[in-house]
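Weekly puzzle thread! Below is a chain. First person to post its structure in token form gets bragging rights.
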Amino acid sequence: MLISQLLYSIVFSFFIVLLIMKLFGILLTGLLLFSALYAPQPVYPVLIAQFGIEATDVALLQTATFIPLALSPVFYGFIIDKTSPLKVLRISLLLIAVGEFFFAFSTSFLYASYCQILSGFIHTCRYDISRQLHIHYLQKTTAFRNI
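Winning reply:
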């Protein structure tokens, strides 16, 4: 039940971000990134019961998310330079919604770990683009006020 609520909130937020793709949308995306990364932690007891694993093993889901965060920024720099950041951000938001859907309905711990690894790569893309667009809009706003 908690996982389906998490899925609903991520999908709903995806559509909100697509509708409002200005500064507020970028800030909301950053907030969603933070909440999606740390969302599994409160439901650890449910995951332990569902998968029949030990409490120490469930922490591997968090590890599976953060390893790609450390490894993939190099590759996303090339992608962002070649294409429009907003287009990549929209695609990544769609992919994260699909990934969270598969995570919510995973039947084994291994499958859930794979979903989190793929999710980690997509979170990196969202983080890098959100940060880049936030800096861009901040510079435009600051430059406009200094005139």
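Puzzle host: Confirmed. Bonus trivia for everyone else. The radius of gyration is 17 Å.
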